[in-house]
Model the fold of this input.
Amino acid sequence: MSFLLWILAVILVVAGIVALVRRQVLWGVVLIIVGLLVGPGGVSLFA
Done:
């Protein structure tokens, strides 16, 4: 399960960075924060 959360976190953070590059600042910041929260190093929402 933690591996799937790690993959999901990576996808969210990468999508957030892409959104920031495309000048969608709010959406990018939200995706990065959610990615950091979901990841195994963060506060997991599913634990």
